[in-house]
Amino acid sequence: xxxxxxxxxxxxxxxxxxxxxxxxxxxxxxxxxxxxxxxxxxxxxxxxxxxxxxxxxxxxxxxxxxxxxxxxxxxxxxxxxxxxxxxxxxxxxxxxxxxxxxxxxxxxxxxxxxxxxxxxxxxxxxxxxxxxxxxxxxxxxxxxxxxxxxxxxxxxxxxxxxxxxxxxxxxxxxxxxxxxxxxxxxxxxxxxxxxxxxxxxxxxxxxxxxxxxxxxxxxxxxxxxxxxxxxxxxxxxxxxxxxxxxxxxxxxxxxxxxxxxxxxxxxxxxxxxxxxxxxxxxxxx
Amino acid sequence: xxxxxxxxxxxxxxxxxxxxxxxxxxxxxxxxxxxxxxxxxxxxxxxxxxxxxxxxxxxxxxxxxxxxxxxxxxxxxxxxxxxxxxxxxxxxxxxxxxxxxxxxxxxxxxxxxxxxxxxxxxxxxxxxxxxxxxxxxxxxxxxxxxxxxxxxxxxxxxxxxxxxxxxxxxxxxxxxxxxxxxxxxxxxxxxxxxxxxxxxxxxxxxxxxxxxxxxxxxxxxxxxxxxxxxxxxxxxxxxxxxxxxxxxxxxxxxxxxxxxxxxxxxxxxxxxxxxxxxxxxx
Lengths: 285, 282
Ligand SMILES: Nc1nc2c(ncn2[C@@H]2O[C@H](COP(=O)(O)OP(=O)(O)OP(=O)(O)O)[C@@H](O)[C@H]2O)c(=O)[nH]1
Ligand SMILES: Nc1nc2c(ncn2[C@@H]2O[C@H](COP(=O)(O)OP(=O)(O)OP(=O)(O)O)[C@@H](O)[C@H]2O)c(=O)[nH]1
Ligand SMILES: [Mg+2]
Ligand SMILES: [Mg+2]
Known about the structure:
The complex is a heterodimer. Chain A is an alpha/beta fold. Helix content of chain A is 49%, strand content 15%. Chain A is built from 12 helices and 8 strands. Chain B has helices at 5-21, 26-40, 51-67, 74-84, 100-113, 130-141, 154-168, 185-198, 214-226, 243-252, 273-281, and strands at 88-93, 118-121, 144-146, 172-175, 202-208, 230-234, 256-260, 268-270. Chain A binds chain B through residues 33, 36-39, 42-43, 100-104, 132-135, 137-139, 141-142, 145, 184-187, 211-217, 221, 238, 240-244, 246-247, 266, and chain B through 17, 20-23, 25-27, 95-99, 127-130, 132-133, 135-137, 181-184, 208, 210-215, 217-218, 235, 237-241, 243-244, 263. The structure holds guanosine-5'-triphosphate (2 copies) and magnesium ion (MG) (2 copies).
């Protein structure tokens, strides 16, 4: 991991004259404040800060110098269970995108498709949202603009029927990304639809798409999605605003899954693989 | 009885947790707690009164003051404004995906139910499927949609809609705009131009109740750039605690006009500050 970029942010640690108990307590208070402002789940902030304090005061640095040791503790605890990303094998893959209304699923479906197309993979998207007005048109326009394969049925209201047909029609593509309707945990019928779709289509990856500005609701929603269909990774969107993505991070930590991608703009190329050190820097900055 | 400082600190830190967990932004929580301490300073507790009830009562008063700073009734506003000019022009703005387009459809339905004629302008000339999305809503509601091609100048579309409405004696024009990040100067400038040229009677900021601390950043920036008149807070049916309402009202000084609580045309209710405060603190 790039400890150097974390050092830029955790200046206080590297400039501290001594890593004593008073310093650790002040540092933990600063971290708590930063994490809360970044929308990390308030209970997780308590856990993270308690653990950082305990480890900083009780663990001996061994090979690292005391400052680097503290930075590593902070980094590890914030990203606990999240890991450093996900490698999607470039072979026959079905990816299903789910998430709350307006989080960025449709846009992200095409971004991911283009990302892999640029790396030599034959990609296509399926308009699996049969609910939102003109969702079919939105996805079709984007797919056509960037030469991405597309399947959808403008007037079909059974989303599972569309996706099943789409998977058949697009069988010559290496990677198929399925867009679905926005939904939240309390919309029983939509949750049922999502369960049925995952059961029948059996995607290789189910990603939960979360807005980087989402607040305290994130972890609870993520748990509901995970109980319903099992989530393999988180995609964070709209990182080009001022939001720090703490809610989305909390969701990943809650379930113990990686953050796969970060969307940072409205253009098709505005997507990157998750950069853990950069993300933690911004969280604490 | 004099208030026990140690006990008070315990209660305040519990309330701090509750407010933060309810999506009230961190800096707003800090200012609220400071105000709360000031008001409790020197206050005496009645015999038999629980300290927590005294503190919570005082907190509720502060929250209601923040939320009730400016009273605004949408139906009354329209009724009054229409006497002095037609069409009444309402502009909807906000960051990406918050529910602007869907909210316009809901507001249109409400106006139609109150016997006003409505025209919608497809001011989002940027996003894929944006115009088609409004076409579906306009068709469902039986209202006219004024649109140009994708890539057209939004100011021109809105201007066109206002001209059309004026010539037909239409009561209200609802203008949609593309979602945009408050960090994109050129897009915020574009919005300033739209507002300057089309002079809306009401500029409504649409944001989502599921947003956390960032709600204050965007509300503040949009308000500084184009001066909003009020906010519609959407997605309350996802069941967030609703503290975002406090954050946004606190930094803009403008009222929450409606709450969006679903994806259907009827899922728009007048904002009730008491209801929100009870929900936050129950
Ligand atoms: N600035 C910015 N905007 C984004 C990003 N990702 C998506 N958007 C925008 O966010 C809005 C919502 O995106 P959609 O792709 O329609 O979201 P969705 O999850 O499919 O929405 P529903 O299908 O209604 O649930 C659109 O205006 C997108 O252009 C991003 O990374 N940055
Ligand atoms: N559950 C719920 N969903 C909502 C609500 N309001 C809007 N939505 C949904 O949120 C998603 C985004 O709504 P839009 O109206 O397209 O949002 P927008 O602000 O116009 O998005 P952009 O134009 O892309 O910036 C859609 O799936 C809507 O159905 C609400 O109050 N509750
Ligand atoms: Mg979509
Ligand atoms: Mg819109």
